[in-house]
Amino acid sequence: MPIRKVMKANEAAAWAAKLAKPKVIAAFPITPSTLVPEKISEFVANGELDAEFIKVESEHSAISACVGAAAAGVRTFTATASQGLALMHEILFIAAGMRLPIVMAIGNRALSAPINIWNDWQDTISQRDTGWIQFYAENNQEALDLILIAYKVAEDERVLLPAMVGFDAFILTHTVEPVEIPDQEVVDEFLGEYEPKHAYLDPARPITQGTLAFPAHYMEARYKVWEAMERAKEVIDEAFAEFEKRFGRKYQKIEEYRTDDAEMIFVTMGSLAGTLKEWVDKKREEGYKVGAAKITVYRPFPVEEIKALAKKTKVLAFIEKNITIGLYGAVFTDASATLINEKEKPLMLDFIAGLGGRDVTFEQLDEAFSITRRALEEGKVEKPINWIGLRKEIL
Amino acid sequence: MAESPFKADIERAQRELTEKMTPGAIVYIPGSSVINKTGSWRVFRPEFHRDKCVRCYLCYIYCPEPSIYLDDEGYPVFDYDYCKGCGICANECPAKAIEMVREVK
To answer: InterPro entries attached here (chain B) (predicted)?
Structure first.
């Protein structure tokens, strides 16, 4: 029987890693993710997890050790956040290019400067082009579940790409919630024993990994990474379906809430989805046809699901905790590109919110609502990007 | 004339290796880099003057590739398929028996 424990998302991530039985964990402590490797090191020290726990001198080394271990043919795990993830940047491309199914937990945190340890998604969003699959968890249970699903997808022969699972700093990493820990046997059945088919170290079958590719071959290697990420869309749906069958919890690339007759749909990711759904209930009580949608899978971008969402509504508004300096938020930009060739598309708005751990309140959502409603009434968008909850008085 | 020690590898690699891109650009045929003839990178070519050679083997020892083999009499043989023309052999040769000559194409 699965047991329920009250725990932080960091502990849930450590539990997920324990259940997945990685052979190598290499990690470097960083706020707000430190507890993830700390808890795992406890599991290893107690003999509850049979794995090598490598204490490294930086995040660059942590992910490099995971690349080496994964290339040698074992399941690996690491965790980081913010500056640590940024320090891993160059190796993230290498992990994806070498097609190593490493899984990493991220406590989504803002990037310096100014130094800020609190939540936004700038760290993972900034890694969107590296070839890593990206999941975003709404709560602690999702943090655990999505890590297991991440292994399932990453290790699928049709995919073979690394995956990261993000959960919001402090809002989830340091907040306790009841989390169901699945049975080890069921997880074992779900994930299976890791059998490397492409990346391994075996003197009897020598191979060369991490090769040099001249202009005559590089593009094809990159194309295959892109193609694998496209294939991941289908594999993720299959993994979600199998997860639901075995564990009873349903996941979708985009989860919709009260969208069927919605004139305005607000889209977000991570823990903000919880706030948003409650706010939608309030708006519905006030008589507005408002819906919410949560993006669980950001890479590969859920193109078809965004198109389906767009067909349902007159205005699609994105509330996102990141900003591409020089343009808009990344989610809005990606969704806009997705819809560019559609004959009929909704008006689209982007709201930048909650950067560096600022709470996104109902008042701020109401601010977004009034701008969205005006666009709906006027049938046009004056300004696609708006920062909400901005303290204009100190600017 | 000494034979390339890579001959068997070259033949095997040419037989087994395909250009088909694998996941992660992994190469499954060991030693297959021998079919990549790096001699085409060369700008200067070592010209060997047998009459000056004292058979000290320094060129053979210092060649980083290695693309210098020894024939039955102990004279060096240059493998122009892989020699990149680095000039180390000419630099090390105490008898000045190796001359670096610009490649003309």
So the answer is: 4Fe4S_Fe-S-bd, 4Fe4S_Fe_S_CS, PorD_KorD, Pyruvate_synthase_PorD
* Residues B90 and B47 placed together within one structural domain of the fold: yes
How many structural domains are present in chain A?
A: 2
Radius of gyration over alpha carbons of chain A, in Å?
A: 21
B27 chain-A contacts, CB cut-off 8 A: 207-208, 211
Q: Which residue has the tokens 């292994």?
A: A151
Q: Write the DSSP symbol of residue A200.
A: -
Give CA–CA dist A83/A88, Å, rounded: 9
Whether B7 and B32 share a structural domain: yes
Q: How far apart are CA A346 and CA A307, in angstroms?
A: 10
Q: pLDDT per residue over A96-127, tens digit each? A: 999 999 999 999 999 999 999 999 999 999 99
Instruction: Note the pLDDT of residue B4.
Output: 76
Q: Please answer yes or no on whether B27 and A207 come within 8 Å at the CB atom.
A: yes
Question: Residue A39 and residue A41: Cα distance in Å, rounded?
Answer: 5
Is A100 an 8 Å CB contact of chain B? yes
Query: Do both A190 and A260 map to the same domain?
Result: no
Residue B52 and residue B87 in one domain: yes
Q: Given an 8 Å threshold on Cβ–Cβ distance, is A199 in contact with B26?
A: yes
Q: How far is A180 from chain B (nearest CA, A)?
A: 36
Tokens 């759904």, residue?
A277
Domain with residue B87: its CATH number is 3.30.70.20
For the entire predicted model, the pTM comes to 0.93
Say if residue A172 is in the same domain as residue A24: yes
b/e per residue A274-288 (b: at least 16 CB within 10 A): bbbbebbeebeeeeb
Can you tell me whether residue A349 is helix, strand or coil?
A: strand
Q: How many domains are contained in chain B?
A: 2
| Mean pLDDT of the region A3-7 | 97
CATH number of the domain enclosing A376 = 3.40.50.920
This complex has an ipTM of 0.85
Same domain, yes or no, for A271 and A202? no
Domain that holds residue B88: 37-104
| A199 part of contact set with chain B, CB < 8 Å | yes
Domain extent for A304: 254-394
A262's enclosing H/E stretch is none
Which pLDDT value is given to residue A197? 84
- A68 φ, ψ to 5°? -60, -45
Q: Is A222 helix (H, G, I), strand (E, B) or coil?
A: helix
